[in-house]
Amino acid sequence: MVAAGDADKGGVADKLGIAPGQAVQEIGWDEDVDDDVRAAIEERIGSDLLDEDADDVVDVVLLWWRDGDGDLVDDLINATGPLAENGVVWVLTPKTGRPGHVEPSEIAEAVPTAGLSQTSNITVAEDWSGTRLVRPSSAKVKR
C-alpha cells in the first residue's frame, strides 16, 4: 500500500536541502510532528535523526516550534551550538489556523537576536511551514 504522501517524501528532503550522509538534529519533537517529514529525511540521510542531547557537529537542525514553547531566541542560540559553519536551521511551525501557530513576525524578531539570518519560507507538510535560517557569514562567505 502506498500512502498519498509517499510520492512526495523525497520532495520534502529536497525542499529542505538535505543531502545523503548529512547529520540532522531534531529539537522540539512532540506527538504533533509530521512523521512523514521525519521519515523522508531519515531515508535521505541514511540514518536516524539526532536528538536534542547529541553532541555531534550537525549540518542541519530541525527545530519544531509552537506558540507557547518558551523563548525562541534561547532555543535558536542553543540550536546553533552544534551547527557546522555552513549549517542550516529550519524552524518548523504549525501553519495558520493550526494549534500552536506562530506568527511570522515572532520568528523575524527572534532571528537577528540569535545571530542568524532568515533566507526563505516553505511549506513542509500539510500542517507545517518551514523558515530557513543561516549564520550571516555563511550566506556571504564561500570557503
TrEMBL record:
- Taxonomy, superkingdom: Bacteria
Cited InterPro entries: DUF3052 (IPR021412)
List the protein's name: DUF3052 domain-containing protein
Q: Which organism is it from?
A: Umezawaea endophytica
